[in-house]
Design a protein that fits this description.
Number of helices: 7
Strand order of the largest sheet: 1-3-2
CATH topology of the largest domain: Non-ribosomal Peptide Synthetase Peptidyl Carrier Protein, Chain A
CATH class of the largest domain: Mainly Alpha
Number of strands: 3
Order of helices and strands: HEHHEEHHHH
Number of domains: 2
Shape: globular
Radius of gyration: 17 Å
Distance between the termini: 32 Å
Largest sheet: 3 strands, antiparallel
Strand content: 5-15%
């Protein structure tokens, strides 16, 4: 078994046995436990615990920081939102983000107020100071995370 598989299995075991239903970990301590570098933990989280796979990963940086991983509850009402999350891809222009949000509002999967807040965070104005090659990737990641959090 590869170390990535072992780390993923360990995290899943913690989630299954947790009373609160989520795993709360510290990257450095986990890396120490498995004898690997913290970036290996980051790799496992970014490849095995994604919104597309039904997970929400939250992190808090700093000395007492943590990583919290929880499974998104699969409910019939959430399926269309998760389909949208899965269809977004690695990059997203602002006009496409607006169209996605308008469609979700029209279909009544997202409230108009929530869509306005998301649209404000995804607007081109917010990304003026960010390198052009990074903007669309960041926008896609943000929309995926916002929709996943909204769906929970």
């Amino acid at each position: 078994m590869r170390i990535s598989d072992e780390i993923a299995a360990y995290i899943l075991h913690i989630m299954e046995n947790a009373e609160n239903g989520y795993a709360e970990l510290q990257r450095n301590l986990l890396a120490e436990e498995f004898g690997c570098v913290p970036s290996q933990i980051t790799y496992v989280l970014s490849s095995r615990f994604t919104p597309e796979q039904g997970y929400l990963v939250e992190s808090r940086r700093g000395g007492g920081g943590y990583i919290r991983i929880r499974r998104v509850q699969a409910q019939k009402e959430l399926t269309p939102i998760m389909h949208v999350v899965n269809s977004i891809g690695d990059s997203l222009v602002s006009t496409a983000a607006e169209a996605i949000l308008q469609s979700l509002v029209y279909q009544q999967f997202v409230t108009p107020q929530a869509a306005k807040i998301m649209a404000a965070a995804l607007s081109e104005r917010c990304y003026r100071e960010i390198a052009p090659e990074t903007r669309d990737r960041l926008r896609a990641a943000l929309l995926k995370n916002m929709l996943t959090a909204y769906a929970v």
